[in-house]
Amino acid sequence: MDCRKDKKQNNNSKFDYLKKLRENEENNKSDVKPADLKEVLDFYKNKKVLITGGAGFIGSNLAIRLCELGADVLVVDSLIEEYGGNIFNLEPVKDKIRLNIADVRTYPTMLYLVKGQDIIFNLAGQVSHIDSMIDPWTDLEINSKSQLTILEACKHNNKDVKIVYAGTRQQYGKPNYLPVDEDHIVHPTDVNGINKMAGEWYHILYNNVYGIRAASLRLVNTYGPRQLLKHNRQGFIGWFIKQILENSEIKLFGGGGQVRDFNFVDDVVDAFLIAGASEQSNGNFYNLGGSEPVSLKDLVKMMIEIAGSGSFTEIPFPEERKMIDIGDFYSDYSKIKHELGWQPEVSLCKGLEKTFDYYKKYKEYYF
Ligand SMILES: NC(=O)c1ccc[n+]([C@@H]2O[C@H](COP(=O)([O-])OP(=O)(O)OC[C@H]3O[C@@H](n4cnc5c(N)ncnc54)[C@H](O)[C@@H]3O)[C@@H](O)[C@H]2O)c1
């Protein structure tokens, strides 16, 4: 796999941003105080941590890391069929964590579970954009109303907790300009984006009004081990991985020219850990983002090359997807970089290699 070749292919005029980013990075170097990772990591030793959605993709990777750091981890997950929760995700820490199969929509349960926790990583969610359009009520219940349920539970039983919420770039909708920074207007193109936006703002409100410390990270496309692969309603990366491993043909909507940025899950876990240990993050929301924007077509070519299987063809955009598609998107993550010292460390090439290694080994648990 020649990653340099892929970088070169991406180096066209669409990526002037990259040049600017690099120039800015050079100019601003002295402003950037990288997070003291050792301090952050020590912070979690013996801390009581609750992860909602902890059997899912990002939540389980976070749970595994927190166990390594000596935290006392409680995972809460409803394991609803068709969602991303997967018991196998927690296999490496099954003897170290407590798993409570419960629904964050249930107030009495949450009232009990938040008690005594030092930090809550709040990742439970209905994450399919297309499902949010088919069944807007469930999306509302889980992504919006449940956030109030969790925050009210904390207000009554644990005002001292720190919460980090998983927001999404989908809150911005179709960008007015690129890269998208936190000053960009939020005008979501689907029900999921609206409910995630409300979910985030309940956290900020409870921080500001009740002093329940909360921060939100607005995630871009995240990929890596422990992601749902079995259907195509939960993001395209997992679906591409499955098709490539089955050696079948990927159908790229609209030619695959859309540009996105990607984070390997370990980088996202780092961002949650850093935000959770920081007081500066209270009441704030931050974009995450990848180090380089890549077109979906280039992404697929890279994936096929790394895995050594699969192929692709281009097809017109299906109408129901086109209506909610956000087109090109890549984020400006300089706020979190400057305030909290986070930046992505894992290159797309390295991250994809690790991802395919994982699924080749544990395919049977994800197909
Ligand atoms: N993966 C991404 O690219 C991405 C991008 C933007 C935002 N996010 C956000 O990050 C969070 C985690 O996403 P993920 O990719 O790990 O998805 P995931 O589907 O793998 O994880 C979500 C988990 O939440 C659980 N869950 C859903 N409804 C629940 C409920 N009512 N009660 C308890 N548990 C429930 C699911 O069972 C699942 O395990 C989500 O909030 C999502 O919106 C993810």
Fill in the keyword field for this structure:
single chain; 367 residues; alpha/beta; Rossmann fold; seven-stranded parallel beta sheet; two-stranded parallel sheet; 14 helices; 15% strand; globular; binds nicotinamide-adenine-dinucleotide
* Topology as a string of helices (H) and strands (E): HHHEHEEHEHHEHEEHEEEHEEHEHHH
Strand-residue proportion: 15-25%
CA-based shape: globular
CATH topology: Rossmann fold
CATH class reads Alpha Beta
State the low-pLDDT regions, or none: 4-22, 24-30
Helical content class:
40-55%
Describe this structure in words.
The protein has helices at residues 3-9, 16-28, 37-43, 57-68, 107-113, 129-134, 136-157, 191-210, 236-245, 265-277, 296-307, 319-322, 334-340, 348-362; strands spanning 48-52, 72-77, 98-101, 119-122, 162-168, 213-219, 221-223, 249-253, 259-260, 262-264, 285-287, 294-295, 311-315. It has one domain (3-365): NAD(P)-binding Rossmann-like Domain (Rossmann fold), CATH 3.40.50.720. Helix content is 42%, strand content 15%. By secondary structure, the protein is of the alpha/beta class. The model is unreliable at 4-22 and 24-30 (pLDDT under 50). The relative contact order is 0.15. The strands form four sheets. Strands 3-2-1-4-5-6-11 form a seven-stranded parallel sheet, with helices on both faces. Nicotinamide-adenine-dinucleotide (NAD) binds next to helix 4, helix 7, strand 5 and strand 7.
